[in-house]
Every structure is written in C-alpha cells, then in structure tokens.
Amino acid sequence: MSLETFRKQNYLAIESYRKNGTAVRTPVWFAQEGETLYVWTQADSGKAKRIRRDGRIRIAPCTASGTPLGEWLEVQAEADASPEALAHVQALMRRKYGLAFIFFRLLGRGRAYTALVIRPQTADGGQQN
After folding, report:
1. 121 pLDDT exceeds 50?
2. Architecture of the structural domain at 4-120
3. Cα–Cα distances in Å, from 59 out to 20, 49, 122?
4. At what angle do helices 83-97 and 99-107 cross, to 10 degrees?
5. Which residues make Cβ contacts (< 8 Å) with residue 44, sequence separation at least 6?
6. SS3 assignment, position 78
7. CA dihedral sign, ordered 53, 58, 63, 68
8. How would you classify residue 125: left for phi > 0, otherwise alpha for psi between -120 and 50, otherwise beta?
9. Maximal C-alpha separation, the chain
10. Cβ-count burial of 19 within 10 angstroms (0-12 exposed, 13-18 middle, 19+ buried)?
11. Pairwise CA distance, residues 113 & 61, whole Å
C-alpha cells in the first residue's frame, strides 16, 4: 500500500478506536516524508490516548470538516513525544503550513505535545520502517 495519495492533501482523517471498539474520526493537519505521515497533536488529546493504547488506525484524505475524499487505508500509528521527534515534526509542519502552523503553535503555548507517526502496515499487520 502506498501513501502517495496523501501527498497533495491538506487534511487527513484519522479513525482510531475507543476501548469498546467504537470508531472515532478526527480531521487533522499532517506532513509527509516518504511513506511516513506525521501529525502534531496535544499529548492528552483523545486520538493520542487511543493510539498509545492501540496503534491500528484507518486514514483517508479529507476536507477540513472531515468529509473523506478517498478510500480508507489501514495503517499503523505510534505516539512519539521525544524531543527529536517533536522538533522534526514541527519543522515539517512549518514547511507545509507556514504561518498558519506558527499561529496554531502560539495558541497552544504551554501545552504538552506529541508526534503521531503513521506508516503502512506490513502483510502480517505490523509496521513498516
């Protein structure tokens, strides 16, 4: 599976799952580097909590309001709050979204953030590196 369909998109719908299995869809900004997608989010957000518990998610390109624009793909995600990951994702997001991302960051000053790292699944359901 290729994540090439996301290259020219501005929004990504993430479908993660609550403990009871209920799907929760969230539109987000994202950046792409090769076959890896990155999302900048608050560390205590629902999607970050759900992904830390279960990294199996589905994604689709979407509108700002979350309306899917293509097929849903099953992928693997992990939350990474290391300083290196946060610096890398912040640079990618600044490059893609410019002043809008900088403004967004200013609004969230003082909050803890995490990077969501999204990769295709391997044939056995694991994560590609």
Report:
1. yes
2. Roll (2.30)
3. 20, 17, 16
4. 130
5. 112
6. strand
7. negative
8. left
9. 41
10. exposed
11. 23
Indicate the domain borders of the chain.
4-120
Alpha-carbon gap, residue 106 to 69, rounded angstroms:
30
- The full length of the chain comes to 129
Instruction: Report pLDDT digits (tens) over 69-89.
Output: 999 999 999 999 999 999 999
pLDDT of residue 59: 97
Edge-to-edge strand list for the sheet holding 56-61? 23-29, 11-17, 56-61, 73-80, 113-120, 36-42, 31-33
Task: With CA atoms as reference, report the closest residue to 26 among 56, 57, 52, 53.
Answer: 57
Token pair, residue 76, equals: 């693997």
Residue in the structure block whose two tokens are 């890398």: 88
